[in-house]
């Protein structure tokens, strides 16, 4: 049945942005940029199709050249060509009345020399990802041992995020999200399973969170806090990640983010692989006073209930946004949701990307 009273369809003040609904599009790596990491016309069409989302959080985007981990086809935001092509995307989304936020990302130890001219990846500690392989045109390859970043190299990382933030403004985005999740560089510093260093960036939680907060402060300096968010995944074991006390970690980080009056905290509530369990939403809600966005496996009904209860302010939907470009309309009308073809998640053409039909085009009714 059509939904007319669900809190999913109430407007939301997200920092400095006003959203028409609380159904957000989660960042989804889709590998449709070209070999120079420049967004393509396919990406323009893809994001424009999904402009009815309360806000689109665009996919993980490289802030510094030479840190590719997705088959060499994830986008970047460090070159003039990338800025110009992203501007086509943001213009197309805005022309349809949408809002779009760019996720700023450094792959850390999940990068691979195959895609980076032989360069060794960097990480907080010399610990390689184990138990998984990375897919290359020559078949699966093991992740390599990363090089531990020196303390005097870290300012360059922070500067890379700052410059990427400037570029994102030039490209017409409405805000930026700092990617501190899923076993990439900033998350690697946060969690003690991957951060074994000593000194100012290792050891206690306050030190392990230092790089993330330095990056966020640099990005706020460009955008203002009201247009900056962060994504965290304290429980997710993807990319061989673990922390000994994820509740204490999210409590500390949420408190620090709240003090900075960040626009939002985008929290992945669970573990892709089911290895780690716990409740990180409750402490995040208790210690972060800005908008809390939930993510990971929410149905529309569960999302609405979480918003009604005050546990969350909005929910970001992932895989169903791949196959339902009009997800907002489908949820509102009670229509069935199409399931995505996972075989096309990381291919490079239109199939499984821009060819999913809207409810109207398919002749469906709610």
What would you say this structure looks like, in words?
This protein is of the alpha/beta class and about 375 residues long. The protein has a single domain, classed as Aldolase class I (TIM Barrel, Alpha-Beta Barrel). About 30% of the residues lie in helices and about 15% in strands. It has helices at about 40-50, 80-95, 155-170, 185-190, 205-210, 210-225, 245-260, 280-285, 300-310, 320-325, 325-335, and strands at about 10-15, 15-20, 25, 55-60, 100-105, 120-125, 135, 140, 145-150, 175-180, 230, 265-270, 290-295, 315. The strands form four sheets. Strands 3-14-13-12-11-10-5-4 form an eight-stranded parallel beta sheet. The protein has a two-stranded antiparallel ribbon with strand order 1-2. It is globular and about 55 Å long.
Task: Kindly estimate the percentage of residues that lie in beta strands according to DSSP.
Answer: 15-25%
Physical arrangement of strands within the biggest beta sheet: 3-14-13-12-11-10-5-4
Would you list the SSEs in sequence order as H and E?
A: EEEHEHEEEEEHEHHHEHEHEHEHH
CATH superfamily: Aldolase class I
Count of discrete domains: 1
Report Rg: 19 Å
- Number of β-strand runs: 14
Helix content: 25-40%
CATH topology assignment: TIM Barrel
């Amino acid at each position: 049945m059509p939904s007319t009273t669900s809190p999913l369809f109430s407007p939301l003040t997200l920092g400095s942005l006003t959203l028409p609904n609380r159904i957000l599009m989660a960042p989804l790596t889709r590998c449709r940029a070209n070999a120079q990491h420049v967004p393509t016309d396919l990406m323009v069409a893809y994001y424009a199709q999904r402009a009815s989302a309360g806000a689109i959080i665009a996919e993980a985007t490289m802030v510094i050249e030479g840190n590719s981990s997705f088959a060499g086809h994830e986008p970047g935001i460090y070159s003039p060509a990338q800025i110009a092509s992203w501007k086509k995307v943001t213009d197309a989304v805005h022309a349809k009345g949408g809002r779009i936020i760019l996720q700023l990302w450094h792959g850390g130890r999940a990068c691979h020399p195959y895609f980076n001219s032989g360069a060794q990846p960097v990480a907080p500690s010399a610990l390689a990802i184990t138990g998984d392989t990375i897919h290359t045109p020559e078949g699966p390859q093991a992740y390599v041992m990363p090089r531990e970043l020196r303390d005097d190299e870290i300012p360059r990382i922070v500067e890379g995020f700052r410059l990427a933030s400037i570029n994102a403004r030039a490209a017409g985005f409405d805000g930026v999200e700092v990617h501190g999740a899923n076993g990439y560089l900033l998350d690697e510093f946060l969690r003690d399973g991957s951060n074994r260093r000593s000194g100012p960036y290792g050891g206690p939680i306050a030190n392990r969170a230092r790089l993330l907060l330095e990056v966020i402060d640099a990005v706020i300096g460009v955008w203002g806090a009201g247009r900056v968010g962060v994504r965290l995944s304290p429980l997710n074991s993807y990319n061989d990640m673990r922390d000994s006390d994820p509740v204490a970690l999210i409590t500390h980080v949420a408190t620090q983010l709240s003090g900075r009056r960040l626009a939002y905290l985008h929290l992945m509530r669970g573990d892709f692989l089911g290895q780690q369990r716990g409740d990180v939403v409750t402490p995040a809600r208790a210690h972060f006073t800005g908008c809390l966005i939930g993510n990971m496996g929410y149905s529309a009904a569960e999302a609405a209930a979480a918003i009604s209860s005050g546990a969350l302010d909005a929910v970001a939907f992932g895989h169903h946004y791949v196959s339902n470009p009009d997800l907002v309309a489908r949820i509102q009308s009670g229509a069935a949701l199409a399931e995505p073809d996972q075989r096309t998640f990381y291919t490079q053409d239109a199939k499984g990307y821009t060819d999913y039909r809207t409810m109207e085009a398919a002749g469906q009714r709610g």
